[in-house]
Amino acid sequence: MEALYQQSLAAGAIDFVADFAEPLATYVIGELLGVPPEDHAWFHTHAKQVVQGLDPEVALEKTDSSIVRSRIRFVRYFHQLAGQRRADPRDDVLTDLVVDDGRHCDADARISDAAGPDEVISSAVLLLTAGIAPIVDLLSCGLHELIRQSRSFERLAADPRIAPSVVEELLRLQPSVQCPVRKASTDVTIEGTDIARGSTVVAVLGAANRDPAVYADPDQINPDRRRAGGHLAFGMGPHFCLGAAVSRLLARAAFIALAHREPKHLVEDLDPVYRMNLMVRGLERLPVQWVAGKSQDSGLRMT
């Protein structure tokens, strides 16, 4: 994190999405999966392509080109890396998938045997997509919200202890997944509306998270809100986001650090650019610049 900050400080003005949020998220997920440092640049390039494939419009435009090639390269890469972990286990998630050594369960409560080759690859790609995209969206959309509501940014700089509550409020206000689509498994009536089995249901989580019947002043960041964490930004039940824990942890550290650096819009009257995606909401670009003379060491490092 500190290295990215120093690079952006030298540049003066950056696109926060491409120059900070994406490389930070990719680095963290790569470390969790056990990607060696010498492969980080390669991993970042192709991870970005794979994550872009989550956008239906992008996927349709590049179905036979870069996204498909990146997916194939990832499959080959993780097959090779999984083989290395079987021969030489490390302290990473990929080792946990391929080596059944019982480190995470006792002898009487075995969770599962080591995953097969196809399961390893599908799990690695799932961790990649479920980890990187939510982190990038939370960091970029969250920063934009904090810039808009500068009083909360100032409170965070003065008292880093409120970071967990601030992050929950940002998740509530700016959920990455806005409109998940589900199929009704049985006939059901909700608030007087009959939904037949097999019907397609679109749950508008962004609206639910701003329900004025649940949240007073729903459009405002309120770190003192009693229902902090009661939002639906990560879904619920079996569909709960796999990357929720790492997204929360990284966002807390990043926003504490950024609150001390006071980023501002590069051009005050230039709105950020959002991706054209109905289901998954996120920023495509967020121009920011660092304010000279006000930065201080946050004590946070990503090594």
From TrEMBL:
The keyword Oxidoreductase applies. GO terms for molecular function: heme binding; iron ion binding; monooxygenase activity; oxidoreductase activity, acting on paired donors, with incorporation or reduction of molecular oxygen. Gene3D superfamilies: Cytochrome P450 (1.10.630.10). The keyword Heme applies. Keywords: Heme, Iron, Metal-binding, Monooxygenase, Oxidoreductase. Pfam families: p450. Belongs to the cytochrome P450 family. This is Cytochrome P450. It comes from Streptomyces roseochromogenus subsp. oscitans DS 12.976.
